[in-house]
Design a protein that fits this description.
The protein is built from 44 helices and 13 strands. The chain is mostly helical. Strands 2-1-3 form a three-stranded mixed sheet. Strands 4-5 form a two-stranded antiparallel sheet. The chain starts with a helix and ends with a strand.
């Protein structure tokens, strides 16, 4: 960007000169041109087009075509103090350098006051002090007490510059119009002249061209290739000179012309010991038009050297100079055409006043290798410094301005030949080179330049103290600047360091802005700032460097942190109200989020670097940000009454900011401070105190909301599976969705919570799911409604004479409500309920893990807060508190979620048992309970029932999950065994078993067991055998002799009871009297019949007809009763 702007500026200057030259040379536009002396001039050779006002020229054209060069020049300098505008009919348009589309809306704050630069027309308020410095009333005293030279020329104000600019170091300004191009070309001439006087031979044109070609490919060679090259010294010097020429953008023609003029000057006028003025005089005296390819080049060259001589020799601080003679001579030099026509004798006579004045301008003491004698009143050091600065800029590649050329070290070594001519010493070189590196870094942002600049600064500060004469000379190089409305006077080296210090301060006082995208440079800038040190003016207005101490460094770094955070805060507050309207958020939310980002950046990138220099940096940052936001938050906290959406967002944003500030503050607590201690405790925003009761109220409200929603969803549940993959009910998904949303909202509040809040949340979850599980099982009927009632006991007796009128078994109809519920509770819906309960158990585990994880994320906040409020023994106390807290939290989780899992498991067992009982005693009662062994064993065996059992199991396996298949199958098998035992003991008058039937019944029981084992793919064999153990024992009673069974009954007769409760299904005991008497009742044996008639007077089974009517069978409503 910088190189592009520079090239455009040069193009603009050339086009401006050409346009003005065309206008002034046109007779139709300008009739006459009046020179500064008042005479009419027909030649434009002496006119400096760069110093003419375009507006003045256009005004002259419209007013008659007479141009006064003096008036046009005066207007040009007056216009420079004004902004550039375009005059239009509607409004004046100002030119700006930035893109307005990228700037956004104009700032609302008032701009800071502008400190105008010092110039000839507008002096600062302390103009009397400036005048005294200029006139020599304020002198610089040295150890010998002699008055040395006074500062002269116009002062340069060290006004606030752009944040990225390296401020000037206060050299006296140039009095004449020397442009950057003039300084660059003159610097190159001084280099060539110094090399010539030092005896360095320069090859002729052929060698020079070879050097040029080698420069083109130099970038393609490695350093090893360059080191291996064994060129002669003359050729290497020539190549290096050509490299410098290319770097300084000097044309080949001008280079050749300069060398020829230097060769002519050395042979005639120049001596071994010389200065810039003497070199310039030597060149001017031997110049002729024949050296230049164009007349314009000749005129520009003459004007440039005339300006140099005027700058050096026309010093207002030297009262012994004959200004009239000098100005007359310089005027002759400016007239190139007339100067070219003069003979060498005439030129020598005209240059006598200039030579006399130049001889009085002495150089450094002889021991510096520059010249002999004492100091003079004016050596023109400010021009020499500027020329040397232009030479130093040649080390940067013109194609890649951020890179040093490969010959940089050789170039710097070669520049030493100019030291005596330009008044440079080693320490001045090091300081100027450091300043040039940093200035180039500002323009290119290449980090290697910053590293080299820091090294050069360290080299300057580590240099050995100067001796008396060198220090005397350095003190003569006075730089005067204005800073904070006060004039500051210093030597050249301190002024350069002070310029760097000012620049470092400006950059680091807003390091969040400058180094947010390049934090690696932040450490280097801090190193440079602390290396340069702090400068301040003393009571005499002179610049003094403070001694580096812990207190000063601490104060400086603290200032950086505070000012940068304040600047970042102001950027966040810009357009805060507008952003609030656009994003529909309260300004406090946006402000807290913005400051949180700043705190995060400070913690991750800046504080680790600052901590190395200032361990309390984190505390300072946290304290500043806390105070800035606290001023706006406190009034808001005082007006909170409920946890509305706006309140929640503000409190959450403030809490997150408080969290980041606590992290930032605790960074300095990890080790003892080595500097001035700050307050070790960070005051927190009162977020927890305000939000704690509001969160509890919110949790209570959520409980009522979830309970109502779950009740509504349960009432609407039809217990149909969601899909073939999701076989649970719809309501359970909705219930967990409500609970998960509540959990997410709870932890998404981003507010400080404690165990009380967690306990409230877990209580809501427990009661909500407990209510839901209760509703899942509350619609089941009691299992007792599924079992048939026990029939009246009879004894087997064959009746030879048929009974005409048999007694009928009485039937009773179930309650209609119970019957409707049983019909509604189909196997598929019961399986969906079972799947739903399993889903509850699974999701509870997921929910528990999620809540534990979320709670674990907020525990560091609690730890950090406890650490900040603890006493000195807080680490031990923190361990005990956290251990107790963890135990309490674990107990809460175990109590809540184990309770939910146990409740769901109990409900699953209940539904599983109900499914088995309903399949055996309700759904299959016609095929199993009422059909098995009805009339005879051989005619109604169990193989006819298994096909219906297989159909039911297939249906269930397709409805329940894999985990639930075995428990449901086990329940059905257990219920079938209960039904089998019921058939044996409660089968009624139609069932009587002979000894020969026992073998068939054992085969049927074995067939039932094998069916559920399913060749190893079903239930485990051991489980089957365990469940079927009681059925086998009952069968074994039928195989016993009747006398044995009667004896067993007589033994247990004291416990006999023929009431139905004692013989309830599923509660039988093998040697119980109720079991034994029923075995005798169903034995097809005369001895058993006689015993039952004699002792219990039981009726004969042939007297009853227990056939179920078609009406009862079709309706499936009737159960047999006594």
């Amino acid at each position: 960007m910088y190189s592009y702007s520079s090239s455009m500026l040069e193009r603009y200057r050339r086009d401006r000169r050409k346009l003005l030259e065309f206008i002034l040379s046109s007779a139709n536009l300008i009739r006459e041109v009046r020179a500064p002396s008042g005479t009419i001039s027909n030649s434009l050779s002496n006119v400096n087009f760069d110093s003419l006002s375009v507006d003045h020229v256009l005004s002259c054209i419209s007013s008659g075509g007479v141009l006064d060069v003096s008036a046009a020049t005066k207007d040009h300098y007056c216009e420079r103090a004004l902004p550039i505008v375009v005059h239009s009919q509607s409004v004046n348009s100002y030119f700006i350098l930035t893109d307005p589309d990228l700037l956004g809306s104009p700032p609302r704050r008032m701009p800071p006051p502008n400190n105008d630069r010092l110039n000839n027309e507008n002096l600062p308020q302390s103009s009397k002090q400036v005048e005294q410095i200029l006139q020599g009333n304020i002198a610089i005293h040295h150890e010998n007490g002699d008055r040395v030279k006074h500062a002269n020329g116009m002062l340069q104000s060290l006004e606030p510059v752009e944040a990225g600019d390296l401020p000037p170091f206060g050299l006296p300004p140039l009095r004449v119009g020397l442009s950057d191009d003039d300084l660059r070309e003159s610097a190159y001439e001084m280099l060539l002249a110094s090399m010539a006087f030092s005896g360095i031979k320069m090859l002729p044109d052929q060698g020079r061209k070879k050097g040029r070609s080698s420069k083109i490919v130099s970038g393609m060679k490695s350093e090893e290739d360059k080191a291996v090259s064994q060129s002669p010294p003359e050729e290497r010097d020539s190549k290096l000179i050509d490299t410098i020429r290319v770097q300084m953008q000097i044309s080949e023609a001008m280079d050749l012309c300069t060398k020829e003029m230097l060769a002519q000057s050395m042979s005639t006028t120049l001596s071994q010991q010389t200065s810039v003025a003497q070199i310039s005089l030597g060149l001017v005296s031997s110049i002729s038009r024949s050296y230049f390819p164009y007349e314009k080049s000749h005129i520009q060259w003459n004007n440039r050297h005339a300006n140099i001589l005027e700058e050096l020799l026309c010093s207002p601080a030297n009262p012994r100079i004959d200004y009239a003679a000098i100005r007359y001579s310089i005027g002759k030099i400016r007239n190139a055409m007339e100067w070219d026509k003069m003979s060498s004798i005439e030129r020598s006579e005209i240059l006598v006043p200039l030579r006399d004045c130049a001889s009085k301008v002495l150089c450094l003491p002889a021991q510096f290798g520059i010249g002999a004698g004492s100091s003079s009143e004016d050596t023109g050091y400010h021009l020499g410094i500027r020329l040397y600065e232009k030479l130093l800029f040649a080390v940067f590649d013109i194609l890649e301005e951020g890179q040093l050329i490969g010959e940089a070290d050789e170039l710097l070594t070669l520049l030493k030949v100019t030291w005596s001519t330009l008044g440079i010493t080693e320490i001045i070189h090091d300081a100027l080179y450091a300043w040039v590196l940093l200035k180039q870094f500002v323009q290119t942002d290449e980090q290697v330049l910053l590293d080299n600049g820091i090294f050069q600064v360290q080299k300057v500060l580590a240099a050995e103290p100067c001796n008396g004469k060198e220090r005397h000379y350095l003190d003569c190089l006075v730089c005067i600047s204005e800073c904070n409305g006060r004039l500051i006077q210093s030597g050249l080296v301190p002024a350069i360091l002070f310029s760097m210090s000012i620049w470092c301060d400006k950059m680091l006082q807003d390091y969040h802005w400058h180094y947010s995208q390049k934090p690696s440079q932040f450490r280097r800038m801090l190193t440079l700032a602390l290396t340069v040190g702090v400068f301040f003016p003393n009571e005499h207005g002179k610049l003094t460097k403070s001694h580096t101490s812990v207190e000063i460094s601490f104060g400086r770094l603290k200032s950086y942190v505070e000012r940068s955070l304040q600047a970042a805060y102001l950027r966040v507050t810009d357009y805060l109200d507008l952003k609030s309207k656009l994003e529909r958020l309260r300004p406090l939310v946006l402000l807290a989020n913005g400051l949180k980002l700043i705190a995060e950046k400070e913690f991750t990138e800046f504080c680790p670097v600052l901590h190395e220099f200032c361990p309390e940096a984190g505390k300072i940052s946290a304290t500043v940000l806390y105070q800035l936001f606290g001023e706006r938050l406190s009034p808001f906290l005082g007006g909170i009454s409920c946890l509305s959406q706006d309140v929640r967002l503000v409190l959450a944003a403030a809490h997150m900011l408080d969290w980041e500030l606590t992290k930032l503050h605790s960074l300095a607590c990890e080790e003892d401070g080595l500097h001035q201690p700050l307050d070790g405790v960070l005051d927190h925003y009162q977020i927890g105190e305000v939000s704690g009761p509001l969160i509890l109220d919110w949790v209570i409200a959520q409980h009522a909301h979830i309970s109502d929603w779950i009740s509504r969803a349960s009432d609407l549940e039809d217990w149909e599976p969601l899909s073939s993959q999701q076989k649970q009910g719809v309501s359970v998904v909705e219930a967990f969705r409500m609970i998960e949303e509540t959990v997410d909202q709870f932890f998404g509040l981003n507010l400080p919570v404690n165990i009380t809040h967690l306990q409230g949340l877990l209580s809501v979850i427990f009661h909500s799911l407990d209510t839901y599980v209760t509703k899942v099982t509350s619609q089941l009927v009691e299992k007792s409604h599924l079992y048939p009632c026990a029939l009246s006991l009879t004894r087997y007796e064959e009746n030879v004479v048929p009974i005409v009128r048999k007694k009928l078994v009485k039937h009773a109809v179930l309650d209609k409500k119970v019957n409707d519920i049983l019909n509604e509770l189909t196997i598929s819906k019961l399986c969906v309920r079972l799947n739903t309960l399993q889903y509850v158990r699974n999701e509870v585990c997921v929910l528990e893990d999620s809540i534990r994880k979320s709670w674990g994320l907020i525990k560091p906040t609690l730890k950090r807060r406890w650490f900040n409020i603890a006493e000195p023994q807080s680490p031990e106390m923190l361990g005990r508190i956290m251990s107790a807290c963890d135990e309490t939290v674990d107990e809460l989780f175990v109590t809540t979620f184990d309770g939910i899992r146990n409740t769901a498991a109990t409900a699953m067992i209940k539904i599983t048992d109900f499914i088995g009982t309903k399949v055996a005693f309700w759904d299959l009662r016609e095929h199993y309970i009422f059909h098995l062994y009805h009339g005879s064993v051989e005619g109604a065996r169990i193989d006819g029932v298994l096909q219906y059992v297989d159909s039911v199991l297939s249906q269930i396996c397709g409805l329940v999950g894999v985990v639930l298949r075995d428990p449901v199958a086990s329940s059905i098998f257990r219920a079938l065994l209960e039904g089998y035992v019921w058939v044996l003991l409660e089968g009624g008058p139609c069932r009587a078993f002979a000894d020969s039937d026992v073998t068939l019944m054992e085969d049927d029981l074995r067939m039932l067991k094998d069916f559920f084992v399913a060749d190893g793919e079903g239930l485990p064999r051991c489980l089957i055998e365990q469940e079927a153990k009681f059925a086998h024992q009952v069968l074994s009673l039928f195989s016993q002799q009747t006398g044995t069974v009667i004896q067993m009954l007589m033994t247990a007769s004291e416990h006999i009871s023929i009431e139905p409760e004692s013989g309830k299904v599923g509660h039988r005991r093998l040697h119980d009297a109720n079991t034994l008497i029923r075995v005798l009742c169903h034995k097809k044996d005369r001895e058993a019949s006689k015993f039952l008639k004699r002792h219990f007077d039981l009726p004969m089974s042939s007297e009853y007809d227990d056939t179920v009517t078609s009406e009862s069978s079709s309706a499936q409503l009737l159960y047999q009763i006594c």
